[in-house]
Structures are given as C-alpha cells and as structure tokens.
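Hi P.,

Sorry for the delay on this. The queue was packed all week, but I finally got your sequence through. Input first:
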Amino acid sequence: MAPESTRKDLDALLREQEAADLLCLSIRTLQSWRIRAAGPPFVQVGRAVRYRRRDLIAWIDANTCGSVERQP
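Then the structure:
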C-alpha cells in the first residue's frame, strides 16, 4: 500500500502553471484544450482552474504511444 504522503501528493490540486510545467506545455495550450473539451480533466472552482496530479498522470499514460507490433 502506498504511503499516505504519496496518496496525498497524487490528489494534490495543481495550479495551471504547475500542470503546464508537468506536461512540458504552455498555459495557452491547456487553455485551448479546455475550450475545445480536450486534454486532461480539470477542476474549476469559481474562476480558478486546477488539475489533479493523478488525472495528469493518467492522461499522460492514456496518451502514450508505444511501438506498434507488425503482424507477419
């Protein structure tokens, strides 16, 4: 079982800049994706936009492309 601090870290809400840094993207890219309902899930509280670290990691995993095995 993961230590409590690790679980809390995964559930941490990141500011827009922190999320962009984690994904190596610009804030503008995240904003564009939100407008188009694309990209990672986000949390909106009033005007504040936050990204859960766990959701960012899951989004990265879901969008990771591996090598394609060729069929003989």
